Amino acid sequence: MARMHVETTINGESAEFLCQPGESLLDALRNELNLTGTKEGCNTGDCGACSVMLDGRLVPSCMVLAPEVEGRSVGTIEGVAQGDELHPLQQKFLEHAALQCGICTPGFIVAAKALLEKNPDPTEEEARYWLAGNLCRCTGYDKIIRAVLDTAAEMNGTNGAATNGAAG
Amino acid sequence: MQSIPYQAPASVSEAVALLGSDAEARVLAGGTDLLVQVRGGVRKPSAWIDVKRIPDLLGVSVEGDSIRIGAATPAAVIFEHPELQRLVPGVAEATDLIGSTQIQGRATLGGNLCNASPAADTTPALIAVGAQCIVAGSGGEREIAVEAFATGPGQTALAQGELLVAVRIPKPAARTADAYLRLIPRTEMDIAVVGAGVALTLGDDGTCTQARVAIGAVAPTALLLEEAAAALVGSRVDDDALARVAAAATAAARPIDDKRGTIAYRRKVVGVLAKRAAAIAANRAQER
């Protein structure tokens, strides 16, 4: 079967790659484009590790076929930091130790960034529901939720009380 | 799976021609059921027909006396539509219940209907509001009531070569409202053990003049319950009427025993949910 040629935009820059027609976007990112920040967890759309943005919408990249992104815009974890400067979410994940093994982390960061862009001041409940499709087997989630809420507080200039309010 | 050819037609007629010429080709909408089935070896399609480049299948519009939802519109886009939320809150609730945030960005209304799971959340909600499926084939379009669309688990009324284009919901009349409830053992990320959708109309004196009650996950397909609706019509949606709705729903349910719930549990709960959904719909109708 001939491989397909796909032209798309990834993290704001035009990109092209060859793929099998039934290859997932996740596999194309990792294997064709060498963007290995996006992780494979379940490959059934349940775990959120492979979360990316597709035309501004949070999606599991294992549930997207690579040829589907022709002419569309994909955002991955590699586009979150600005050069060497971490995104506030990435910084807060470090400060709060919101990761251990790290496999779920890129998916959490991409999903949490989508949350804060849509809802800059989420409640703890809103953050927990938004991130319910991101599974973490290390942290118990609480540090992740604290990191997300603390990021929101910092970005909104209301830092102080929020870090203590997210006990699970 | 890797080598299955992929095509993305730009029009309904092109998609229908592709589907008509290849009985094993599968429509790819959000892919959240189909890709899992293909990876699991449950299905072996000969081709992917991606329908998300067809404008007719995308988006929500409110035109004249109906709401039209393109079949390839993802759940998140449906739920975020403010006018749809206002007009048919039960349908909005059902779309909002499906899967995670990520899945909501992919999973489509058409996919939920065509996958024909007995536990599909949107189906009872759509049946309650009297929604119609708009189906295109080589001979033109036809409409199928949502309650007749699924014919069994994984089975639909679509003939070979037909494509689900959109769902059309009649705009609710004055003092008409809907609601959808489902039971899962946790608060998020699960499949309905039981679902119930109700739409009803109240007269000026608070008497129910029209009602539709639908239940899901308790039979091979979602069911439209005429007896439960009859219990509401003519009543003031009081405790007595709600008790009869619950009894009718319990009597109509034909559930299975599985890991999500027993037959006895599902029969009990479907009555409770039908009753509660009717009460919520009545409260909403009163406020209109």
Using brief descriptors, characterize the structure shown.
heterodimer, A: 168 residues, alpha+beta, Ubiquitin-like (UB roll), DNA polymerase, domain 1, 2 domains, 5 helices, 15% strand, B: 288 residues, Uridine Diphospho-n-acetylenolpyruvylglucosamine Reductase, domain 2, Uridine Diphospho-n-acetylenolpyruvylglucosamine Reductase, domain 3, Enolase-like, domain 1, 3 domains, four-stranded antiparallel sheet
What does this structure look like?
The complex is a heterodimer of chains A (168) and B (288). Chain A has 168 residues and is of the alpha+beta class. Helices cover 30% and strands 15% of the residues of chain A. Chain A has five helices and five strands; from the N terminus they run ββαβββαααα. Chain A has helices at 25-32, 88-95, 105-118, 124-130, 142-155; strands at 4-10, 13-19, 51-54, 57-60, 73-75. Chain A has a five-stranded mixed beta sheet, with helices on both faces. Chain A is globular. By secondary structure, chain B is of the alpha+beta class. Chain B has three domains: 6-50, Uridine Diphospho-n-acetylenolpyruvylglucosamine Reductase, domain 2 (2-Layer Sandwich), CATH 3.30.43; 60-170, Uridine Diphospho-n-acetylenolpyruvylglucosamine Reductase, domain 3, CATH 3.30.465; 178-286, CO dehydrogenase flavoprotein, C-terminal domain (Enolase-like, domain 1). Chain B has twelve helices and 14 strands. Chain B has helices spanning 12-21, 34-39, 75-79, 82-87, 89-96, 101-104, 109-115, 122-128, 146-149, 226-232, 239-252, 263-286, and strands at 6-7, 25-28, 47-50, 60-63, 66-70, 132-137, 140-145, 150-152, 155-156, 163-170, 176-183, 194-202, 208-216, 223-224. A five-stranded antiparallel beta sheet of chain B has the order 4-5-10-6-7. In chain B, strands 11-12-13-14 form a four-stranded antiparallel beta sheet, sandwiched between helices. In chain B, β2 (25-28), α2 (34-39) and β3 (47-50) form a beta-alpha-beta unit. The interface between A and B is medium-sized, with 34 and 29 residues.
